[in-house]
Please model this.
Amino acid sequence: MKNILVTGAGGQLGLTLKELAPRYPDLHFEFKTRAELDVTNKENVEKIFSAFQYDYCINCAAYTHVENAEKEPEQAHEVNAEGVKNLAHACLENNLVLIHISTDYVFDGKKNSPYGTKDIPNPINEYGKSKWLGEQYIQKLLSRFYIVRTSWLYSKTFGKNFYKTILENAIKGEELRVTDTQTGSPTNTISLSNFLIETLILHNADFGIHHFTDNTAMTWFTFAQKIILENGLTDKVKLLRQSNYNSLAKRPEYSVLDVGK
Model:
């Protein structure tokens, strides 16, 4: 029996893992929401980690609002960097393997081919900078870790995300304007959850940095098209291509991840 602690259990990935957990009777999961485990509170983290002998910590806790991170960078860094450092220390002291979810936004988007795990990060917004600093803390403190970079994460069931927003607006028959200036790989939380459990935990993948997406590159506009088509709403909504995207945060134009490296 492997014991797995999941932080950030109230988010879309944490809730997906919780939904899938009963499929794995040989794994014991404990899910902690932010109210139960605040990663920015070092004493809280130490208390939770020392109270039970966990084998893994899957860190789903994150500050993910890219736009707001530009306005309140301290808060983004507190969660995505300092909070991750707290978890890394606790994993080191209690002999846990840390599985940390990171992002394609650690890259600047200037490359014209998929980013591999050996490519040097160069984040261009505060969110990406905070996530990159969190990665560095992990690599400095731990030898037994998985940093899993993913991109354009969405759940069809949980949380607020691009998929659900497009679907809700399409059902209302609203005119949709979606940018075609960014290219990435949408990733379903179910796919990522299966990777974390099956590949990393059950099959003991090599420690280090991994890239995982659903491995199909597209623009946000193309993704919106797919969502509308998948739900049979092509006759109900008008989807318009938008080349100028109003954003406070700079965003990488190309952030496709190479999942083979």
The domain at 2-155+187-215 is CATH 3.40.50.720 (Rossmann fold). The longest strand covers residues 97-103.
